[in-house]
Amino acid sequence: MLEVLANAxxxxxxxxxxxxxxxxxxxxxxxxAIPGLNGTMAIALLIPLTFTWTPLFSIAMLIxxxxxxxxxxxxxxxxxxxxxxxxAxxxxxxxxxxxxxxKAGKALKMxxxxxxxxxxxxxxxLFGAAPPIAALALMFGPPELAMLILFALVVVAGTGNDSxxxxxxxxxxxxxxxxxxxxxxxxxxxxxxxxxxLDAGIELLAMLIGLLVxxxxxxxxxxxxxxxxxxxxxxxxxxNDSRVTWPELKRCLGTIFRSSLLGSFCGALPGxxxxxxxxxxxxxxxxxxxxxxxxxxxxxxxVAAPEAANNAVCGAxxxxxxxxxxxxxxxxxxxxxxxxxxGLAPGPMLMxxxxxxxxxxxxxxILSDFFMLxxxxxxxxxxxxxxxxxxxxxxxxxxxxxxxxAYGTQQSLFDVKVMVFFGIIGYLLKKWGLSPAALLxxxxxxxxxxxxxxxxxxxxxxxxxIFVTRPISLLFLVLTIAVIIWIGWRKKKNS
Length: 495
What we know:
Layout: H1 2-12, H2 15-32, H3 39-46, H4 55-80, H5 92-100, H6 104-138, H7 142-156, H8 164-178, E1 181-182, E2 189-190, H9 204-221, H10 246-268, H11 273-288, H12 300-316, H13 319-324, H14 330-341, H15 350-353, H16 355-371, H17 377-386, H18 391-408, H19 413-432, H20 436-459, H21 466-469, H22 471-494
Antiparallel strand pairs: 1-2
Helix pairs in contact: 1-16, 2-4, 2-16, 3-4, 3-14, 4-5, 4-6, 4-12, 4-14, 4-16, 5-6, 5-12, 6-10, 6-12, 6-16, 7-20, 7-22, 8-20, 9-18, 9-19, 9-20, 10-11, 10-12, 11-12, 18-19
């Protein structure tokens, strides 16, 4: 084993491979910061260029691009309340209020530190515990996944809402919208109103851009067309407002560590992904905080938790691909194509046939986390200058990028119409005090919980006791009931 690690270090720890990882992080951060674009698009565009490159250089750059884009989305989320990537939606809940208080630098740096720590923890787990974690993921069948997602839906019902009723309404609307399209089992049409474009459901990226980005543009336009977004920000002369102090980082370390483990766990489960991890990280931070009422108003833990969780998915997301040949997320599925191009067939035999390449990749991943501390800094500083541009110049550019992002996924003008529709819906939701974020995460989780519930009932012959006869499933069911009771008790106590 030591000989394999020594050979892996000799072939992987080279200036060329470091440059590949650094280039990927830079491109990913830049694209992730632009609303409507994301790392998956960049990875897909870069793959044809890697045909003649070495496997380690190619994979280092592609994974660096993925990592950079996950953090990059937080830059526009914090500065403009317009998440550049879906993973950054939860970050904007407390990141943007900090910007309005004149603490944009503090929020961006906390997001960066949490991202690096989360990615580092995840990569170390990938390096040392890939087989055991993959084995744990295999213990989750449809009943366990159904109860896990049901638990997540109950928890996120309160995300971004002062009222649990409003949170439940947002969540219910998201689950209802998730039913649009063809039934996943019978292929029967549901809520399509005769439109062929809706047979595949509502495009997630178009919905997200409308709900979170376009709606925010409409809201801020009400404040004044000529005014710059930065003019409504409180001006601060305190140097500590542009950096994260050690006491602040120390206070958030527990939250970052828990969110990193949660994100790693979500990454190891195929199909759960970084969006779910980010919202679950945010909710666990709020649920365990001594001051949950501060969340949504500029709480640093509300920035640290989702960023640690969504970046932790990157390393652990490779676990099911490397050990089982199953891509755990969309970006991993694209990266999996690059593995195959270079003759690396993902699956149980990959670490047996190419141990030096795989362990070399793990080493580059860990070292690339340190590049993340430096490379995004100039993009971060540029972003802080962008918010001083008047809305009359800035918002038309953002709206054009929104249209490009919505159109680019499937090259469909229908998706642009979907974006505009949900932009108006998001505007109305925010005006009425409902949470677009809760709706969005419910939309993502809705199809998953439906499929797993129906698969579970087919396994048991329509016997619902399958959810209480399996230990892990029963555990999440008990936790779900406990959360509902706790919410009711807290509401009664506060009334």
